[in-house]
Design brief:
Blueprint (H helix, E strand, L loop, with lengths): L1 E4 L11 E8 L7 E6 L2 E6 L18 H4 E3 H16 L1
Antiparallel strand pairs: 1-2, 1-5, 2-3, 3-4
Amino acid sequence: MIANCKVTFYNFKKNENYKIDGIHSIFEQDDFITLIDNDVTARFRLNKSKDYIDDYIGTNEHYFYDYFTILKEERKQKLKKIYNSKI
């Protein structure tokens, strides 16, 4: 799966695509998503929870969808809009 960066953020550059290395769970299904860029691993939360998970992601917890779009999902939404506009 590929993610597209919406805003320049740490090592990630706007409009660049990045490989999603994995989706991981601690307490809930699919809590976190991991991206790797030039051997730098970055983990983002997939939910908006403000809960701090000690010794896992640290104080720099960022919500994935604030910074990235998953291209497959974005494409599905665009196709859905096109299809619905033709009906």
